[in-house]
Amino acid sequence: MIKNLQDFLAGLLFLALGIGFGWAATRHALGSAADMGPGYVPLLLGLLLGLLGVLILFKALTFEAVGGGRVRHWGLGPLLRVLGGLFWFALCSGPAQWPWVGGWFTRWPTLGLAVGLVGLVLAVVSGDKGGSRQRVWLWAIALVAVVCILWIGPLGLDVPLWPTRSMR
Question: What residues form the membrane-spanning segments (predicted)?
Answer without folding.
Answer: 40-58, 79-98, 104-125, 137-157
